[in-house]
Amino acid sequence: MAIVVRIDVELAKRKMSVGEFAERVGLTPANIAVLKNGRAKAVRFTTLDAMCRVLGCQPGDLLEWVPDDDTTPA
């Protein structure tokens, strides 16, 4: 997958635990783990909004597109 999730980086910057983050966002720690590990197939805008609100960041701080090795420019 070419989307890299950087929730762990933002949590580390703020010295915030996954449990505290999950509680403040309104998700379970298990669902945060799914997002953190890049196993989620989708993220609702309301969830992304809550994560950005809690962390005081932009969506681009949490998600980054990285081209696959086999991706060639058009």
Account of the 3D structure:
The chain has 74 residues and is mainly alpha-helical. It has one domain: 434 Repressor (Amino-terminal Domain) (Orthogonal Bundle). The chain is 53% helix and 8% strand. It has 5 helices and 2 strands, in the order E-H-H-H-H-H-E. The chain has a two-stranded antiparallel ribbon.
Q: In the CATH classification, which architecture applies?
A: Orthogonal Bundle
Helix content: 40-55%
Q: How many beta strands in the DSSP annotation?
A: 2
Q: Sketch the topology as an H/E string, one letter per element.
A: EHHHHHE
Largest pleated sheet: 2 strands, antiparallel
Structural class: mainly alpha
Q: Report the CATH C-level class.
A: Mainly Alpha
Tally of individual domains: 1
The CATH H-level homologous superfamily: lambda repressor-like DNA-binding domains
Oligomer: single chain
Low-confidence spans: pLDDT under 50, at least 5 residues?
none
Quick recap:
This protein has 74 residues and is mainly alpha-helical.
Give a topology summary.
Layout: E1 3-5, H1 7-14, H2 18-25, H3 29-36, H4 45-55, H5 59-62, E2 63-65
